[in-house]
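URGENT: need a sanity check before tomorrow's submission.

F., can you look over the Enoyl-CoA hydratase record below? I want to be sure the sequence and structure line up before it goes out.
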Amino acid sequence: MDAPSMLQVTRHGDGGHVVELALDRPSAMNAINDQIAREITAVTADLAADRTVRAVVVTSTHEKAFCVGADLKERNTFTDAQMMDHRLVTRQAYRGVLDLPVPVVAAVEGYALGGGMEIALSCDLLVAGERATLGLPEVGVGVIPGGGGTQLLTRRVGWSRAASMIFTARRLGAAEARELGVVDELVPAGTARDRALELGAQIAANSPVAVRNAKKAMRLGMGTDLASGLEIEDGCWRATAFSQDRAEGVAAFVDKRVPDWPGR
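Structure tokens as predicted:
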């Protein structure tokens, strides 16, 4: 008999263009075990291939935890070979979120620690409730952030702020996380999901071709020099400017109506 799924996938809005991916392992505060990592990989692969998806919102069914990180109880049973196999599985899961071609919004309530914070950092926007707690405590248990944390946090907040968090393994309250730039929007406790879904709907109202290409240009250009980045932007502009979405967008503007995006 198959184990119950540890993810809930829900489509929102007319057309179902906003997809909510809810972590659903409440008995362990969504700790990342082998099963949930494999499910994240499979679901994000499906979403990446689905051209009807315009935004993804990552949430949790647990009111006190977004995700507390790796399932250390499970890992404690692994041999070295099993640990390496699990490493490949978890890397695929984090990359599955990071590489989604549409904007991804994280809605964090409660604890987002270790791998849980790395899932949130893999998203493009991070909304947190005011009682959220975030941190990368891996060095305190003899490892380092391995789901992109050393790279994504540094890119988000700069070297010194990332170094302070990672080297000390300290946890941040939501207000401090917002001040440091870890969190993009701070909202009243219990409302992060609603706000993230609202952002998803705002994103989905725009041209899906334009939004995908804007994200592509930003992601690819981020690690290059300015001249290379501008060339990447130009390629993405050309891919957008001659699309059916561009023709519909201009026509809708002239006709003073809401665009009906072809998505092509």
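My own read: The longest strand covers residues 7-12. The chain has two domains: 7-204, 208-255. If you see anything odd, call me.
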